[in-house]
Design a protein that fits this description.
The chain is α+β, with helices and mostly antiparallel strands. Helix content is 18%, strand content 38%. A nine-stranded antiparallel β-sheet has the order 14-11-12-13-26-25-24-18-22.
């Protein structure tokens, strides 16, 4: 076998796979790049317990002696070697060649001098890698094939998910490290609040499932770098396709209940605040590691915010439904409140709708609950705070 690669294509593909398999929870067996060599083309594969990532290798030539084959190299061995050929001073890499040597793989890098150096000789250097045996238990992941189910373009929906709900999810294995996709809602649980949005991915098949932090991080880091992404749901995986990239991610069907949080939100009463200004003010309060006390007086045109170091008033832009409601207060950490405002400032902005740039502070008086949302009614966050007079 002789595989000749373009260096830039090779380093891009291997780095992408290494960023996935070199996970703290991955076993040493997973921290590797699998080269799947077929007469139809070359595919690089990385696997973890929840993700199988396949990437076609462009700009390569393959000579096979005895039919299709695979070899596997440890990322801790391969990547440092390839990285030494980045940012070269006197030469450029012309090509990279892999060859089989019994149970090992020889990697030869061919360099040429830069034009301004004045030399024309070709240089080459080789490194011998162990060809790691592929264990039988890994074969089912490697052999996953694209499903026959219909593919849906989900590029815009994944972007919205990455801006709004994914940032709420923590890097943990408990309930705070998952997104729940029911038929109607997407739900993210946090120690300080619960965020619920309409399930805008349900028409694409993403309902009745739960995705963990590592899958969500993969979607945000890898898939969103592609121009167009399509999705299909199988009985065990979500299948994503984007250009020369394929990914199979495992989902869970055991969904946490969120009926309690759903019932705590009441949109009858709201106070509108400029979202951008509130975020600027919270950044000032975050200099002190202590909660901010909000004083809400429905008869006033401002909200009063203070802690032991700083205080400031924020103008209210609209008040509805607070007839007969007396002044009340609540405390919240600035970081939690900022995180509970889903999306970026422009995520839910609507042309011609001035209110869409505001945050609504909702008050459920009967249950003494504060929640956040906006005029789009696409999402809300229920805060875990105590309301008092």
């Amino acid at each position: 076998m002789i595989l000749t690669c373009n260096y830039n294509s090779l380093i891009s593909a291997t780095q992408s796979i290494a960023s996935i398999v070199e996970d703290a929870l991955s076993s040493d067996d997973d921290k590797a790049v699998i080269f799947n060599l077929k007469s139809s083309g070359v595919t690089l594969i990385g696997t973890t317990p929840v993700i199988t990532y396949k990437r076609s290798l462009a700009d390569c030539q393959l000579v096979l002696d005895e039919g299709d084959m695979m070899f596997m190299l440890k990322t801790k061995d391969l990547m440092p070697f390839l990285n030494t050929f980045k940012s070269l001073r006197r030469t450029n890499v012309d090509r990279v060649v892999f060859e089989t040597l019994s149970n090992r793989i020889r990697c030869t890098v061919f360099e040429v001098y830069n034009e301004d150096v004045g030399y024309s000789d070709e240089l080459h250097s080789s490194w011998i890698f162990d060809n790691i045996p592929i264990k039988p238990k890994k074969l089912p992941y490697i052999n996953l094939e694209s499903p026959t189910e219909q593919l849906f373009d989900c590029s815009m929906e994944l972007k919205l998910l990455s801006e709004s709900m994914i940032p709420v999810v923590g890097n943990t294995s408990n309930i705070y490290g998952n997104l729940v996709f029911s038929e109607e809602h997407i739900v993210a649980f946090n120690q300080a609040f619960t965020s619920i949005s309409k399930n805008f991915l349900a028409p694409k098949g993403l309902s009745g499932i739960k995705l963990n932090y590592r899958v969500l991080a993969f979607i945000k880091k890898v898939l969103l770098s592609e121009e167009q992404v399509s999705v299909s749901k199988t009985d065990r995986h979500l299948y994503f396709a984007a250009g020369g990239v394929e990914a199979f991610v495992m989902y869970d069907t055991k969904l946490a209940s969120y009926d309690t949080q759903l019932g705590l939100h009441d949109a009858t009463r709201h106070i509108a605040i400029d979202r951008g200004y509130l975020k600027d003010v919270l950044r000032r309060f975050s200099l002190a590691s202590e909660p901010v006390e909000f004083t809400v007086n429905p008869d006033s045109t401002v909200l009063h915010l203070k802690n032991s170091k700083f205080e400031q008033e924020i103008p209210t832009l609209d008040i509805k439904g607070f007839e007969g409601v007396s002044q009340f207060k609540f405390k919240v950490m600035p970081l939690y409140l900022d995180s509970a405002m889903l999306g970026e400032d422009s995520t839910f902005l609507q042309d011609g709708n001035e209110q869409s740039g505001n945050i609504f502070l909702y008050y459920n008086q009967a249950k003494s609950i504060i929640s956040l949302g906006d005029c789009t009614n696409l999402w809300f966050s229920v805060l875990s705070v105590t309301v008092y007079e």
